[in-house]
Specification:
217 residues; alpha+beta
Length: 217
């Protein structure tokens, strides 16, 4: 087993909307998730879910086995990284907390969100529904969502970490309303194994090794 630590920075290129549900006393019909300091966040559950979805897509494209469904307990690389209902996940995914630009330059009065009007579309007619004007809160574009570390735990070997790394690199949309252009972002990360930073070239080689060995079967 190897000790794993991954720090993440998600740099939003368009506004991000990770909904918390309800209106929470605001003008918005849907508000964004926030932490105890009222800062917009990308919850750890979404970090894990999006990363797992990307990892399954990558594994499938590389010919590696993937779970058939959420309850599938087959011993695959995906299960070893993300867990299953019968197998405790070996990694913890923290929430990514937002700042607008460099943290040292942010004042307490600075606005961190925006309320956007939108119209619900009738899927059958392809036109706007009557009386369905909605107001959606979004975090501002240009925000950085970060956690250092964001992912901690232990994995069987560097090959499994390489699949996680590739999945994180593949995620370029966060939050909801993606069809409206929300949530585009780029991700920067630092990967540390047993206290030592890892190079991208080494992780790419490890991913090729995972495919060659047919891990997860």
């Amino acid at each position: 087993m190897i000790d794993v630590e991954v720090s993440l920075e998600v740099l939003s290129e368009t506004p991000v909307s990770v909904g918390a549900g309800g209106s929470a006393g605001t003008l918005a019909d849907k508000v964004i998730a926030r932490d105890s300091r009222n800062l917009p966040i990308i919850p750890g559950s979404q970090v894990k879910g999006r990363t797992r979805h990307a990892a399954e897509a990558i594994a499938r494209s590389l010919g590696l086995p993937v779970p058939r469904g959420f309850d599938d307990n087959a011993d695959t690389a995906i299960r070893r990284i993300f867990g299953s209902p019968q197998y405790r996940a070996p990694l913890h995914f923290a929430s990514l907390v937002s700042v607008l630009g460099e943290p040292s330059q942010i004042g307490p009065e600075q606005r961190l969100s925006h309320i956007r009007p939108s119209v619900a579309i009738n899927r059958r007619r392809g036109t706007a529904d009557d009386e369905r004007l909605l107001f959606q809160e979004t975090a501002l574009e240009g925000m950085i969502f970060a956690a250092r570390p964001a992912i901690v735990g232990a994995l069987p070997d560097i090959e499994h970490l390489a699949l996680l790394w590739a999945a994180l690199r593949a995620v370029d949309r966060w939050g909801g309303a993606k069809s409206r252009g929300l949530g585009w972002a780029t991700t920067r990360m630092q990967v540390i194994v047993n206290g030592q930073p890892q190079r991208d070239d080494d992780l790419e080689a490890a991913l090729r090794s995972l495919v060659k060995r047919g891990e997860g079967q």
